Amino acid sequence: MTMPQTRLPTSRFFQFEEVAEGIYAAIVTAAGGAIGNAGILDLGDQTLLFDTTQLPQAALDLRSAAEQLTGRPISTVINSHWHGDHVNGNMVFGPEVRILATGYTRGLMRKYGAREITKDRETIGDYLKSLEDKAAQAEDDAGRRRWTDWLSANREYAAALPTLELRLPNVTFEQRHSFYGTRRRAELLTYGGGHSQSDSFLWLPDDGVAFLADLLFVGSHPWLRGGDDAEWDRILQRVETLEIRKAVPGHGPVGTLADAGRVRRYLADLRQIAEAAVEEKLSLETTLQTPIPAAYRDWEFRSFYKITLRFLYERLTMAGEPS
Asked: What is the value of pTM for the model shown?
């Protein structure tokens, strides 16, 4: 006898996927503006939400979806790291909901979060105009679609910015926080910082599922600026020792540990390009003309390639400081 399939919620911001019974990935739509993936977890007597995305309006959909899927309201929200595309939705949750992050992440949110929102309010108009121009000047349909989707996503963000408020975590942990539900257990872990200065992830050992946030990008160029590629590699090596069968990334579709290996190779390949350029005394401008390696040419977020290459080159030459 087959069990009936769970009826998944619908949202313009997400495609919901049941990665194991009672564990759901919220994978963002390209034009929706939520940007960062999220997760809903039914522990049996409590419901967890992993990350709240860039948009309060998307977080409202996550809140409704969680109640539909688990039959109870969210009790705990987890913030994987400080970047706005993973925490801006915090504001839709009331004081009865715990928001949990590392102490370091909370400090980074407090230091940089409101500043980022203020800066984005000042610059969003010009940014939208630049995206309109890029969509109009795209050389082919695929390029036009990418820029049009990104424009639509940022229009959603522009709509949220006037009332966007930063809500900080009200509970912190340092290395591990364990959840014991009547249905399953979950481990919230941090091995340090690689993508950001402090990255945490949620591991469900009995289900073989991990929500890795931006420690994992699937089919997308990773964002490194402000991080540390060597530490990122070290963290992923530790992650690879876990018996993970399904890995939910911060960006891209649900993947596996093989995708963690691809992120490690990408970071190593770009560092090798930057090191060769510095050794040959190439200018930054010449280095940035290096084509995207063939293995990554079809990945999303291709503009991140030059940003990462610049970051590595400048760090190697001490020509600038990480931002």
From this structure: 0.94
Q: What is the per-residue pLDDT for 107?
A: 97
Which ranges in 4-160 belong to alpha helices (H)? Answer: 56-70, 84-87, 103-108, 114-137, 141-160
The 3-state DSSP class for residue 308 equals: helix
* 8 Å CB contact between 225 and 307: yes
96 CB neighbour count, 10 Å cutoff: 8
Closest CA to 267 of 226, 212, 221: 221
Phi-psi region of 17 (alpha: psi -120 to 50; beta: other; left: phi over 0): beta
CB 182 within 8 A of CB 171: no
Q: Which of 107, 252, 257, 87 is nearest to 165 (CA)?
A: 87
53 closest CA partner among 38, 67, 42, 39: 38
Mark the ranges of the chain whose per-residue pLDDT is less than 50.
1-3, 319-323
* Structure confidence by residue, pLDDT tens digits, 215-250: 999 999 999 999 999 999 999 999 999 999 999 999
Buried b (16+ CB within 10 A) or exposed e, 59-69: bebbbebbeeb
